[in-house]
Amino acid sequence: MIGVHTASRLCASVRTYNRGVALSEFGLIERFFRRPARSSSVVLAGGDDAALIAPTVGFEIALSVDMLVENRHFFHGVDPQALGHKSLAVNLSDMAAMGATPRWALLAGALPAADPQWLAAFARGFFDLADAFGVDLIGGDTTQGPLNLCVTIAGEVPAGQAIRRGGAKTGDDVYVSGELGASALAVAALQDRVALDADALTSSRMRLDWPAPRVALGERLRSVATAMLDVSDGLTGDLTHILDASGVGAAIELAAIPRSSALDALLATPARDVAIECLLAGGDDYELLFTAPPSSAPTLAALSRDLELPLTRIGWITVERGLTVTDEHGDALGAVPRAFDHFAGDSQA
């Protein structure tokens, strides 16, 4: 949504100010997204053909990009402030998953219309989170079209200390932060696949619309975790990425996976299959999933207390390849739900 160069122009007449003055593309940028850089590492922000940054000596640059498409990743009509928050939060989560400190972001997107009220709320959600993590918006792009948002983020990590997916070792424990499944439970409820009371729906919807990136945890795990990623597409699918990269297998206990009371209650109802799907394959959790040697348990317990964030052991790494999930009775699940696939027909629509 920030324009350094653009491929096409927003129609100036699609939406106007209350005063009747058309909101042009570059007026949109100046009014809602142009801000002085907070950090001296930003040599030149938006306005030229490219931004210039000055990386810290002795650090490596971590880069990630995520796209959010209406009715694919978020529902039509979602609160624009929440969408601004989430569009950056999912990228901050990628930085956390590498143990990197987020520093700079680029924001691009297509808008159906240049609506000042919508843009003000979106920018407020985006910049509130950016300010909380010291991230500078340094450029981007905008055009007219179906609502589609794309953030590219860059961060820094001390050279050689990034946490990759390929370091899990036989005998390591498997941990996850926070709780899993609430975001997917909200989607299931909004799609009328499961019934929730008002309080449960509100709390689950908060997890879906306002994810909390675990940046501080990621930074603190640099010397502890052997492999890590964030749970964005679902526990089973994301853990499989670690297993494939590391050449190992894993055993996970369904009963050990941390979840909300609403989700826990559903496991004992006819909606059990939906609850298991939310826990194992729902995605949109943006919690950190990592492996660590058993000797690190006291360190992780202290870190959990320090950050006031649950870190739960849910299984262990095995020498046999593949993923096994056991139920509350210790029996292997006959069918493990598949994780989200962008080309398999999944969506929030």
CATH topology of the largest domain: Phosphoribosyl-aminoimidazole Synthetase, Chain A, domain 2
Major pleated sheet: 6 strands, mixed
Low-confidence stretches: 1-21
- Supply Rg: 21 Å
* Alpha carbon gap, first and last residue: 24 Å
Number of separate helices? 10
β-sheet strand percentage: 15-25%
Explained architecture:
The structure is a single chain. The protein is of the alpha+beta class and 349 residues long. The protein folds into two domains: 25-158, 60s Ribosomal Protein L30, Chain: A; 173-326, Alpha-Beta Complex (Phosphoribosyl-aminoimidazole Synthetase, Chain A, domain 2). The protein is 31% helix and 23% strand. The chain is built from ten helices and twelve strands. It has a six-stranded mixed beta sheet, sandwiched between helices. Strands 3-6-4-5 form a four-stranded mixed beta sheet. The chain has a two-stranded antiparallel sheet with strand order 1-2. Helix 2 packs parallel to helix 3 (116-132). The longest helix has 18 residues, at 80-97. The protein is globular and about 60 Å long. Mean pLDDT is 87; it is low at 1-21.
